[in-house]
Amino acid sequence: MIKVESLEAGYGNRRIVNDLSFLVEKGEVYGVLGPNGSGKTTLLKTLTQALPFTKGKIAVAGKPIENYQVKELARVMALLSQHHEQSFAYTVKEVVAMGRYPHKKGLFHFSDEKDEQLVEEMMELMDVTDFKEKPLSMLSGGEQQRVFLARSLVQEPEVLLLDEPTNHLDISYQIELMSRIVRLAGEKRLTVLAVLHDVNLASMFCDRLLLLNDGKKVAEGTPGYVLKDENLSQMYNTRLIESTHPTVPKPLITYEPDHYRSANGTFIRFKETDAKLIIESGAPWRVITTRKNGPAVRWIKRFTFLKEGIPGQKENQELIFDIRKGRCTIVKEKHSGGFSLILVLNEGEVTVSAFLNGRLSDNGMFHLATLIAGAVKAAAPGYSLCEMCIAVTGMGGSWGGENAIMESARDLVNEIKKGEVKREDLYEKR
Ligand SMILES: Nc1ncnc2c1ncn2[C@@H]1O[C@H](COP(=O)(O)OP(=O)(O)OP(=O)(O)O)[C@@H](O)[C@H]1O
Q1: What is the pLDDT of residues 202-245, one digit of tens each?
Q2: pLDDT band at residue 52 using 50, 70 and 90 as cut-offs
């Protein structure tokens, strides 16, 4: 529906969009992401004929864009941007009706029955009928944006261009607006090209994304393919972290403020009395655990292994293990790589906790859990593994150090597997 080939565009001698090619299919929601000044608005300007391009080709609905008359292009393509100040004196209905202009001939035009019907229908669809006689200036930012979307839709476009349409909207209006747009793309086969700043909004609502930097394509594809740590961190020149959305199969992007990165504390402290062994840290660990009494991934500051007495009040960010009938043994510690493995035995059952001073992705944590489970099975065949906790500080080594950490873990696990940690060691009291 929109085909851009080897496009070059800019201002004067300054080239902003550089050798850019992409194709947006009919009914697709295509997002354009990029840092400030990367050329997103310049690209939109070339698509709307507001800026002539110097090289390459743009075709909309199969026809080169330069062959469109202005009004003809407006019948095919509508633009929803964030600036509409000139319309504030008009009523909602008047603003929506302005969208019919490209379908009218001559300087003066009057609404016909089809116009009236469409205006009413789109106001209904965008849920603004109740305000139709009010001046636009009396509406909230989110309500106004719905009015402008209704105006774009009475244009009956095949292509909808969006320029940061959710700017200034609160989160509920952002979700509402984008949900309406995605629904329209599905129901009316509307093709949508949206310039967005919010990476998560783009991830959640777009079928495919184009990452733009310095007017060039950095990556293109589904959000899952494109929104990778390395692409984003390089593009925005800041550390962004990709994780998995808990309920939607889309990536979730988050960031880490510097003051958290530099925060530190004692990685691990052991306090042992006759009643309990406490393992705690200066800063909370990110923990994956098989414990059922809470989320599988949580932040924990203290592990308490209860040897005697009854469990007291549980502290915030604390996991309590009852080992009154068993023992608690540290099988192996390896501090050189900032890695420490704690094995806790409880009668015939085995609880394994691995504590790590470093940065490990969720993938790395699960990988480590599998490695350790295998090693324990080999070293203590009589025991069935019942609980597993992997605790990671997120401090210390860099993210690039994940391979080094896994290497260190693998060495340790091999030592355990090869029996270099003797079975009796498992019972050795610390
Ligand atoms: N009318 C203009 N004349 C000259 N240079 C311009 C003009 N408009 C934009 N530029 C320059 O072109 C570059 C790209 O601007 P553009 O507005 O396309 O970026 P953008 O990706 O939309 O940025 P933002 O995210 O900040 O909106 C910028 O360096 C900008 O200064």
Answers
A1: 999 999 999 999 999 999 999 999 998 888 888 888 878 888 88
A2: very high
Please give the residue range of the domain that contains residue 211. 2-255
Same domain, 319 and 204: no
Q: What is the pLDDT of residue 243?
A: 80
Q: Is 18 in the pocket of ligand 1 (CB under 6 A)?
A: no
Give yes or no for a contact between 359 and 404, defined as CB atoms under 8 angstroms apart: no
Residue 215 CB–ligand 1 contact under 6 Å:
no
Evaluate: CB of 41 within 6 angstroms of ligand 1: yes
Q: Are residues 208 and 329 in the same domain?
A: no
- CATH number of residue 134's parent domain: 3.40.50.300
Q: Find out whether the beta carbon of 123 lies less than 6 Å from any atom of ligand 1.
A: no
| Residue 311 pLDDT exceeds 70 | yes
Q: Is residue 35 part of a domain?
A: yes
99 lines ligand 1 (CB under 6 A): no
The CA 85 to ligand 1 mean position distance, Å, reads 21
pLDDT tens-digit readout, 293-303: 888 889 998 98
Q: Which atom of ligand 1 is nearest to the CA of 10?
A: 12
Taking phi over 0 as left and psi of -120 to 50 as alpha, with beta for the rest, 189 belongs to: left
Task: Label residue 161 by pLDDT band (50, 70, 90).
Answer: very high
When divided into structural domains, the chain yields a total of: 2
pLDDT confidence tier of residue 390, bands split at 50, 70 and 90: confident
What's residue 121's pLDDT? 86
**Residue 427 CB–ligand 1 contact under 6 Å:** no
Does ligand 1 lie within 6 Å of residue 82's CB atom?
no
In this structure, the residue with its CA closest to atom 15 of ligand 1 is 37
Q: What is the ipTM of this complex?
A: 0.98
The closest residue, in CA terms, to atom 27 on ligand 1 is 36
Residues 245, 277 share a domain: no
Instruction: Name the closest-CA residue to atom 11, ligand 1.
Output: 37
